[in-house]
Amino acid sequence: MLESCYKPLERCFGGGGGDGLLWNMDLKPHASGEYSVAVVQANSLLEDQGQVLTSPSATYIGVYDGHGGPEASRFINSHLFRYLEKFADERGGLSKDVIAKAFDATETEFLHLVKESWLDRPQIVSVGSCCLLGVISNGTLFVANLGDSRAVLGRQASGGGRMVHSSTVVAERLSTDHNVGVEEVRKEVKALHPDDAHIVVYTHGVWRIKGIIQVSRSIGDVYLKKPEYNRNPLFQQYASPFPLKRAVMSAEPSIITRKLRPQDLFLIFASDGLWEQLSDEDAVEIVHKNPRNGIAKRLIRAAIEVAARKREMRYDDIKRIEKGVRRHFHDDITVVVIYLDGGRGKCKSHSHDDITGDTTAPLDIFTFNSDDNSHLSP
């Protein structure tokens, strides 16, 4: 049962190497390998959330990239895994239908929260989150996604039906980017709204739905799904300049299943803050060529170094910039790296207790690191 795996946040983390807005966790075991997690904060309030839940029978990975505020990503962090457990128990195991039902329940419950709180907090109608889920169970990988966070597999290359040299690793994208910057997604959105000339607008060098948002699927963003919130005078500062006739975003996830194979080496789950700076191939190469310990932090550092070079700066310059201002240089970034050692003789032997646990990134890195270092103050 997943319920028994929920535990208080363990303080087994490494520092950010002098970066007060970076958090990372030491390498930990899961049922078929090890995993690494890291988060860097750029916004005044951290809008990303990430979690890994492990048990002897399954590993669950969640990356939730919020926008407009942290409420939606925090809500998913508290509800999605529990809905997965509930529906999997009811239906006798995990399936695409169970995952879709868990996403729908999370969306419905967040909408209920918005309806209850909008008078006191009207801005909550404009809060949303991308939602990336991975589950490994019985040798099968499930990946479900809303938005433009991404799951990428690193696997040994094969040719002519045989494995090629073990140092050759290729990147395979497992998730679908729901972002209208992608031409296929733009066409999909336009096809769903043939009577709306302003459904996708090119503004400030970026394609956006109704001139507002780049992603086409999310949890939340109620003002772009429920026209009554868009029309209400209370919400005009959050509303589209083009009136809504119907929902222009959805919460229907793209879901894939894949049997894991011996050549599958590792998985990278990350919010789009990473993929804005690194290609799938670059990220896979970094993981493949570097030591495991601290690998998620290494990916974040590589992404920030790319962002710094774009401004003719160095990483050391970026890490001195305070939260909020730092968002002008890069986004919040959450990274989870999952090593897949089962079947290759690399998987270490761990006790039941070792591989049963819940790792959740702090709600706010700046606050967490400040509290963690408070004992050093005079």
Automatic annotation (TrEMBL):
Domain of life: Eukaryota
An example Gene Ontology biological process: regulation of intracellular signal transduction
Catalytic activity: O-phospho-L-threonyl-[protein] + H2O = L-threonyl-[protein] + phosphate; O-phospho-L-seryl-[protein] + H2O = L-seryl-[protein] + phosphate
Enzyme Commission number(s): 3.1.3.16
Entry keywords, A to Z: Hydrolase, Magnesium, Manganese, Metal-binding, Protein phosphatase
SMART domains linked: PP2Cc (SM00332)
Gene3D superfamilies: PPM-type phosphatase domain
Protein family according to the UniProt entry: Belongs to the PP2C family.
Protein name, per record: protein-serine/threonine phosphatase
